Structure prediction request, 77 residues.
Amino acid sequence: MVHSSHSFFLNYFQKLEFNVFVWNYRGYGLSTGTPTPSNLKSDIDLILKYLKTDLNISGKIGVYGRSLGGIPSSHLS
Prediction:
């Protein structure tokens, strides 16, 4: 489930034909672990690799994050 405050940006990215991929941080939802800055950076690197290698995503990829999501999105940008 996507929090309604994020739905505006998801719709915006989709209208621009960006690929949208949403996940739970470590320790959120059914995920285990702790969302440390180091873990967040490592996780987003693996997610990007997964998108490009396993899912063969080759188009635009929008990077969006706020609050805790600012760490991985800033790291990628």
